[in-house]
């Protein structure tokens, strides 16, 4: 017996040792497994961080390449245009009639090269608009502009053609290359005047860290932004609010009336300085009064025609009730109210027809005292050879690819480094290139040999004009960031570019932030329809704790509604409602246990609500019960779906359309 006991004890000890050994092996295996998992998690996290760094580095490289491409193309477009106009100046200004007759072929060639430069962008826009909006598969999705926009488009085409012809043939072809380069900058003055007039006192939302909500918003917008912050917690919310303050501060500085007034003043001072330079330094035998009058008139006309408000007016489509339903473009659930393609199709056609006629008339009017007829020469020598042809082809290529690269930068959301920065730096780079590069030696040689006492003054007035441009136009370049791979309408107002004013037109044609535009609408206190706020959860078979949390959230929403009415004077026609959609809550007219469980918690969780005070209705989908919650009597409705009346798996979005 003892032996049996001993054997039994030894057997138990052996089993215990085996179990401990297996346990130790299992712990070691678990440790090895956990170590492997930790190593896998660490390697996965490090791989993610490496991918983020790789994407950031690749993005910076692409942005830097686009910066150089856009900057080089825009600066090259300026230099080649001014150099080509300077060649026409040499063969037309201060020449005898015999010399003009001997150089008639050169005059005709340079004249037609400049006309082609003016017309070619409109030809490309005409083809693009025709393919997309007129003869393409999506032609029914793009409406025609309204009647007033059609009339305004035709009149603006005439004014733009005349203003561009006057600027090219009387300003660029009269001034020295350096002054001609500076004369393009004050075109923003008209846009600044409109900004000063239409910019209200409140324009952008700002986060008030004391009150804990957004200012300068109506209540619907504020509630949406505040509710979006509820899903951010801890450091994420802090970083979000810090970035919001930085963006609001930057936007408020750029979109400020004082800044716009200063920018307009600098542009006017710079234009006046250029005109004063013309008057003080002209030769006695030259008609200096022509560019003195043509410069401000052409710049004001072009600036007003290219302003945001006028361009948006030209792209307006008829109201929805006046349009054919087949011509409504549905995108992201909303109708596209812009007639950008068909409006540009018509306006480009007008300009293609008008440029050869009106440009010829302007050229003949400017040189009315000289026997110059650019149409008299043979068309065989219009393109020419040598430096003229090089400048002509280089300008066409640089202006076109400058627009393409800028469009690509906006498409890839490289707005700052690939679009805004090169456009702001293009004029200084073009100026320095013209003064340094030997190919453009006429910039420095002709200017500094002619204007001995005004050399530094001209550089100073350029800085004044450039500073006004940066202060006024940076808002359009830096405050709008479209989504990646956005449509062209989200990036630019018109599918068009101007080769003469490439930098200026791209800056004005940039689509401004639609959200900030909505902030500039002042509420007048009247709405045609109420603005509802809805809270609509869905229930199936939740437990008591989940139902209690949901009802308490509804009660807090009613308290928020009452507080907003007290603090901010909420509009009387605004309504806040709460709905609960309960699946399978009724079976043959009888409430199920989950529905009864929810009703038993109503009086406990909702302020001032009694079960018997509610309203009960028989509906097409089952039943519904409603109460008035809180001090402001927020409507609270529970919709009970009867599976005998409605198919069990039918969604509530389909159920509500059955009524």
Automatic annotation (TrEMBL):
Q: Does the keyword Transport apply?
A: no
Q: Which InterPro entries match?
A: Chitin_synth
Which residues lie in coiled coils? none
Provide the alphabetized UniProt keywords. Answer: Membrane, Transmembrane, Transmembrane helix
Where do transmembrane segments lie in this chain? 56-77, 110-136, 148-172, 178-198, 261-282, 288-306, 348-366, 389-412, 419-439, 459-478
State where it is primarily located: membrane
Gene Ontology BP annotations: chitin biosynthetic process
- Location of this chain's protein in the cell: Membrane
**What are the GO MF terms of this UniProt record?**
chitin synthase activity
Q: How does it sit in the membrane?
A: Multi-pass membrane protein
Which is a Gene Ontology cellular component entry for this protein? Answer: cell periphery
What protein does this entry describe? Answer: Chitin synthase chs-2
Q: Which organism is it from?
A: Geodia barretti
């Amino acid at each position: 017996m003892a032996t049996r006991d001993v054997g039994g004890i030894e057997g138990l000890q052996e089993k215990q040792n085996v179990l401990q050994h297996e346990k130790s092996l299992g712990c070691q295996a678990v440790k090895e497994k956990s170590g492997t998992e930790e190593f896998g998690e660490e390697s996965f996290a490090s791989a993610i961080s490496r991918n983020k760094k790789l994407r950031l580095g690749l993005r910076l490289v692409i942005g830097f390449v686009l910066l150089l491409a856009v900057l080089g193309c825009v600066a090259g477009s300026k230099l080649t245009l001014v150099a080509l106009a300077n060649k026409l100046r040499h063969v037309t200004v201060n020449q005898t009639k015999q010399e003009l007759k001997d150089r008639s072929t050169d005059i005709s060639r340079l004249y037609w090269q400049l006309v082609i430069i003016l017309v070619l962008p409109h030809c490309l826009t005409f083809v693009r608009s025709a393919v997309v909006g007129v003869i393409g598969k999506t032609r029914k999705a793009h409406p025609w502009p309204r009647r007033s926009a059609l009339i305004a488009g035709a009149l603006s085409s005439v004014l733009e053609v005349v203003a561009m012809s006057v600027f090219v043939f009387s300003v660029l072809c009269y001034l020295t290359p350096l002054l001609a380069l500076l004369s393009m900058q004050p075109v923003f003055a008209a846009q600044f005047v409109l900004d000063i007039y239409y910019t209200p006192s409140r324009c952008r939302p700002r986060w008030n860290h004391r009150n804990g909500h957004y200012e300068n918003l109506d209540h619907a917008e504020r509630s949406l932004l505040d509710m979006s912050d509820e899903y951010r917690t801890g450091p994420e919310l802090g970083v979000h609010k810090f970035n919001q303050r930085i963006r609001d501060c930057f936007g408020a500085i750029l979109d400020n009336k004082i800044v716009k007034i200063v920018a307009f003043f600098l542009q006017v001072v710079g234009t006046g300085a250029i005109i004063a330079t013309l008057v003080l330094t002209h030769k006695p035998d030259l008609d200096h009064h022509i560019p003195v009058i043509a410069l401000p008139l052409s710049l004001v006309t072009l600036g007003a025609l290219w302003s945001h408000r006028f361009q948006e007016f030209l792209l307006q489509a008829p109201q929805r009730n006046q349009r054919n339903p087949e011509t409504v473009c549905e995108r992201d659930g909303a109708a596209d109210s812009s007639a950008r393609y068909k409006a540009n199709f018509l306006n480009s056609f007008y300009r293609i027809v008008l440029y050869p006629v009106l440009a010829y008339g302007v050229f003949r009017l400017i040189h009315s005292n000289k026997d110059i007829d650019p149409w008299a020469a043979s068309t065989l020598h219009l393109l020419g050879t040598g430096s003229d042809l090089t400048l002509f082809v280089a300008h066409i290529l640089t202006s076109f690819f400058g627009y393409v690269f800028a469009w690509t930068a906006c498409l890839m959301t490289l707005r700052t480094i690939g679009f805004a920065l090169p456009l702001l730096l293009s004029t200084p780079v073009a100026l320095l290139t013209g003064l340094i590069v030997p190919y453009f030696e006429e910039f420095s040689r002709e200017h500094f040999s002619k204007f001995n006492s005004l050399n530094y003054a001209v550089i100073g007035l350029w800085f004044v004009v450039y500073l006004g441009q940066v202060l006024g136009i940076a808002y359009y370049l830096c405050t709008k960031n479209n989504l990646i791979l956005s449509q062209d309408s989200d990036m630019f107002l018109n599918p068009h570019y101007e080769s003469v004013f490439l930098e200026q037109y791209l800056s004005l044609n940039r689509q401004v932030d639609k959200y900030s535009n909505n902030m500039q609408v002042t509420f007048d206190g009247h709405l045609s329809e109420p603005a509802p706020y809805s809270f609509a959860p869905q229930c199936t078979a939740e437990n008591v704790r989940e139902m209690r949390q949901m009802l308490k959230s509804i009660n807090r929403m009613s308290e928020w509604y009452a507080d907003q009415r007290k603090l901010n004077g909420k509009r009387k026609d605004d309504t806040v409602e709460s709905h609960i959609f309960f699946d399978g809550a009724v079976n043959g007219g009888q409430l199920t246990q989950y529905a009864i469980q929810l009703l038993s918690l109503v009086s406990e969780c909702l302020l001032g609500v009694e079960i018997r005070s509610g309203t009960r209705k028989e509906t097409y989908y089952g039943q519904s019960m409603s109460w008035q919650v809180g001090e402001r009597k927020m409507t609270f409705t529970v919709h009970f779906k009867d599976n005998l009346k409605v198919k069990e798996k039918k969604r509530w979005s389909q159920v509500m359309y059955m009524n």
